Amino acid sequence: MSAFRKIKVLFVTHYRELYGANNSLLQMILELRSKGIVPVVLMPDYEIQPGNDLGLELDKLGIKHIDARIRFDKHKDWRKAAANYIINGLRRRDFLDKVKDTDFDIVHSNSSIITAGACIAKKFGKPHVWHIREFGDLDYGMKTPFGKWFQKIIYRGDNTFIAISDSVRKHYSKWLDGKKIRVIYNGIKPSPQRKAETHEQVEICIVGFIQREKGQMDLIKAIDDLVNKRNIHNLHVTLVGSSDKEYAEEINLYVKDHGLSDFVTMTGRRNDVAELLTKMDIGVMASAHEAFGRTTVEYMMAGLAVVASDGGANKEIIEDNKTGVIYKSGYPSSLADKIEQLIRDPGKRERLAVEGRMAAEKRFSSKANSDAVYKLYNEILKNS
Q: Which of 86, 139, 182, 293 matches a 20 to 30 Å C-alpha distance to 163?
């Protein structure tokens, strides 16, 4: 521990739930803490279900967090984005007062869609790290309050940028100097591995919040193709995750109308995903604009064969036909083709699983992620 420099970092997150961005943040904080980083987390103060609250998890780990009335500054509806931006301005004194005695060295915002961290860094004259974990407009339809020029304004100042993939770096180079953006892939903690065995029924899963942008319907349509047109019945699909109610109802109706009830299960949110993956054979990433693909790497770490779309950063993570297979995004028939290949060729399925796990452990470990972030902190402080 003495070999590391003690640095106090104020992390700012835009929501409380334990989904992708906050899971990545939490794992990064735990790794950085072992290097001497002293973390404090600023988060919105709304209430959620206890089993999915980042605040409660931080309490268990003895990590200080500060709750404040902050909102994110992008939204699917530009009018709500503008309202949030104005409300944040009105509440500026509240969150500035709450962090003024924290004595932090660096502010680290965990998303591109919240400006509170940049405001805090400017107020107290501290360097600011902006962690860009999403495309924003492409993957979630997020809009800025006052048009694209707004992004050029909010990203000015003493900012250092981390992009979680080269695809994200290229996207944000529209508003930023791409040379100033450091690509640091998310770090994933190794998980239990499925047993290398073949069996008649092939278990397929897709994990993540069930919403249109994540493409679960493409998988359901691919299963319809396999079952009802290609007469392949030795398969079962599990959809895991909380859901947008309207979209989930659309999926359920499609499953019922196409006679797929025996082949599709929706579990809702689960806290035992790592264990669940050990019982799966194939993991699907169907999002057309995945900024990184944390779930994709979790599939790989668990020893699943991965089928991923050709959108977003998927092709950075997956080497086609070596560490997984890539299908044409938005074309369920292409997805069906890839799944059929892996069902009919268990040897290939296993080879992809083995190669995928080795690649994931080498490229996307939580240690590699935290080493890169820690190095960046030291560079920033040395030059500030």
A: 86
